Amino acid sequence: MASGDTLAIFGPQANQPPTSSYATLNLRNGHVVLEFDTATQETAIFASKMPRHYGGGNVVVYVSWMAATATAGTIGWGVTFERDANAGDDMDVDSWATEQIVTAGTVPASSGVISVTNLTITAGATGTDSIAAGDDYRVRIRRDVATDTAAGDAQLLSVELKEA
Fold first, then answer.
1. CATH assignment at residue 116
2. Contacts of 9 (CB under 8 A, 6+ apart)
3. Do 147 and 104 touch, CB atoms closer than 8 A?
4. How much is the pLDDT for 89?
5. How open is the CA angle 118-130-128, to the nearest 5 degrees?
6. If the chain, 164 residues long, is cut into consecutive pieces of 10 residues, what is the mean pLDDT of each piece?
7. Is residue 107 part of a domain?
8. How far apart are CA 20 and CA 41, in angstroms?
9. Residue 152: exposed, middle, or buried by beta-carbon count in 10 A (0-12, 13-18, 19+)?
10. Vertex 97 angle, CA 163 and 26, to 5°
11. What is the model's pTM?
12. Domain total for the chain?
């Protein structure tokens, strides 16, 4: 696979929410979004299979989002992977790699304007959980409520994974 090729794209409706503290589906002018609270760390989980042509390199995670009402401050995201390999993890127990933090992006001055922030996740056990071509996996996205400063919900539009 060539550097920069897309590995997966997830929209809000692909979310497989955890049993608690999950991001909620909503509509914004007909656009489906996942809303993440400003004070409670809410989570979205997306599952897929790594394409067979994935070369095993670093993965760049692009998060497309808007602020629900804020016109100032920053919004950040936490991202982590879980490899669900054949004869690997016990599916009754989560086994997330170390969460990586996307540098908080500045909220646009107009509510409803899309921002895209990204982070390169290093291939390996602590980054991508050593996901290999053909492996099932999950990616978890959480709002970084501990360090971002925007008031109100953050609205996620999509997540794209590309090989670095």
1. 2.60.120.260
2. 158, 159, 160, 161
3. yes
4. 72
5. 15
6. 84 97 97 96 97 95 97 96 80 86 94 95 94 96 94 97 96
7. yes
8. 10
9. middle
10. 75
11. 0.94
12. 1
Residue 1 within any structural domain of the chain:
no
51, two tokens:
């394409």
Q: How far is CA 58 from the centre of its chain?
A: 15
Hey, what are 159's tokens? 């997540």
Q: How many CA atoms lie within 13 A of 99 on its CB side?
A: 13
Task: Quote the domain boundaries for residue 107.
Answer: 6-163
Token couple for 60:
């760049």
Beta bridge partners of 79: 100, 141
CB atoms within 10 A of CB 78: 19
Outline where DSSP puts E strands in 11-68: 24-28, 31-36, 43-49, 59-67
14 is a domain residue: yes
Q: What is the pLDDT of residue 54?
A: 95
CA atoms within 13 A on the CB side of 145: 16
CA atoms within 13 A on the CB side of 115: 26
Tokens standing for residue 7 = 């590995």
